[in-house]
Amino acid sequence: MKLAANLQEQVASHLRRRILSGQILPGTPLREQNLAVEFGISRGPIRDALLHLTKEGLLLAKPNVGVRVAAEPSAFKRHVIVHLRREIEASAVTAWFATRDPALLKRLDDNLSQYKDACGGSDLGQVVELDMAFHRLVVETADQGSLVDLWQPIMLRMFLRYSRHRDLMESYNEHAGIVRAMHAGREWEALEALKLHIV
Amino acid sequence: MKLAANLQEQVASHLRRRILSGQILPGTPLREQNLAVEFGISRGPIRDALLHLTKEGLLLAKPNVGVRVAAEPSAFKRHVIVHLRREIEASAVTAWFATRDPALLKRLDDNLSQYKDACGGSDLGQVVELDMAFHRLVVETADQGSLVDLWQPIMLRMFLRYSRHRDLMESYNEHAGIVRAMHAGREWEALEALKLHIV
DNA sequence: GTTGTTGAAATTGTTGACAATAGACAATTG
DNA sequence: CAATTGTCTATTGTCAACAATTTCAACAAC
C-alpha cells in the first residue's frame, strides 16, 4: 500500500476504504469541518478529497449543502456496471494473453496468498483492498495501464459489499481459478471464469 | 444551457468546452495562478475545477507539478471506450423502448434542429455542446438518469474531435436517423444506427 | 565531458478568516 | 389558520497569505 505525499490523497483513501467496507453507511452526511478536526488538518485538503470521491461515485454532492455517501446503484444501473466491468477487464485479460508476460502472474500469485489470509481474517477493509488490487493488477497490465482511470470509478460504483466467511472464501476461489487458467494458458477458460466472477 | 451557481462549475464548463473544441491542445499545461487572473477569481475554485476535469479524464495531474491537457486515448483504449459507450447508450435506448415516452422525442427533435444549424455554422464549441447534449438526453431518460455520471467521463475521454463541414452534416444525419427510427418505433434499427454512430 | 550541488524562481499544497447560501423555525399578515 | 416573510444557525464557497516542493540553470568537482 503506497502512502500518498499529499493530504488530499490520504484523506480520500481513508474515507474510500471506510465507505467500501461499510463502516460509513449510504446516506450519511460528511461535513468538511468535522472531518477537518478529525484528521487534524484544514478544510482545504478535505474539500479536495470529497471532490475526488464524489467524482468516483461514492459520494453525492449538493451545492451549498454538502456531500452524503451515495446510495447503492439500482438493479438496472448495477446491471450496466457489470457489463462495463466485464468489458474492461476482459479486454485487459485478452491483451495479456497476447504477451503472456509472467510478471503479472507473479504479482497475482502474491496477491492471492495475501487475499487467502485476509478472507480468513476479520478485517473487511483489508479484504476490499486486496480484492480491488487483484482486479487493478489485471487492468494495469494492458496498454500501459491506460484503462485504470476508466475502470476505477466503474468498479467503485458497484459498492461491493462483502458478507462473512461464506462468500469470502468463494471469492478467493474464483480469483484462484482465473489465475490458474492464466498459468495454464487457457484463454477461454480465464475469460469465462472472469465473467462469472463479476456479478 | 444551465448556468452554474458556483464558480468552480463555471470554470470547469468553460475549460471543458475549450478543450473539447480543440482550442487548448493536448499537452498544454494549465497553471492555477494564470487561470485565476484570467477568470478574475482566486485559486480555490480553479483548483476545484481542475480536479473535476482531471477526474473526467480531460486533464492529467502530477502531484506538486500541476495539470496538463491529457493526450488523446491510444487506439486500444479508444476501442474499449467505444464499446463502453455503446453498452451504456444502447441500454438507455432499450429502456426507452419499453416506455416510448414521447417527452424524449420532443427534446431530441428540438436538439436536432439546433444541431443542424450549428453544423452549418462555425462555432465548434456549440457543435460539441449539442452533440453531447443529444447523447445525454438519451442517457438521462433511462432509470431516472442514473447512468449519466457513469456515461459522462467515458464520453469525455473520447476527445471527440470535429473536422469541418463534411463530417458535421454527416453526424447530424446520423442523429436524425436514430431519432427517425425511434419515432417509427423500430427498436432494432435505432440500436443499429446508434452503434454505427459511435466510433 | 560528465556528474553532482546549490540556490533561486515558479508552482502547487495548506491554512485560517471571511462571505454567501440553504434550511429550519419563529413572527407577521391576510 | 394558512401562507408568507424575516431571522438565525450550520455549512459550504471564496479569498489571500504562507509553506513545501519541484524545476532548472549556474557552477564546482571529479
Structural write-up:
The structure is a homodimer of 199-residue chains. The first copy, chain A, has 199 residues and is mainly alpha-helical. Chain A folds into two domains: 7-69, Orthogonal Bundle (Arc Repressor Mutant, subunit A); 75-197, Up-down Bundle (Four Helix Bundle (Hemerythrin (Met), subunit A)). Helix content of chain A is 68%, strand content 5%. Chain A has nine helices and three strands. Chain A has a three-stranded antiparallel sheet. In chain A, strand 2 and strand 3 (66-69) form a beta hairpin. The longest helix of chain A is centred in the middle third of the chain and has 25 residues, at 75-99. Chain A is elongated and about 55 Å long. The A-B interface holds A 4-6, 9, 47-48, 51-52, 55-57, 63-64, 73-74, 76-77, 79-81, 83-84, 87-88, 91, 95, 142-143, 146-147, 149-150, 153-154, 157 and B 5-6, 9, 47-48, 51-52, 55-57, 63-64, 73-74, 76-77, 79-81, 83-84, 87-88, 91, 95, 142-143, 146-147, 149-150, 153-154, 157. Chain A binds a DNA duplex (30 and 30 nucleotides) through helix 3.
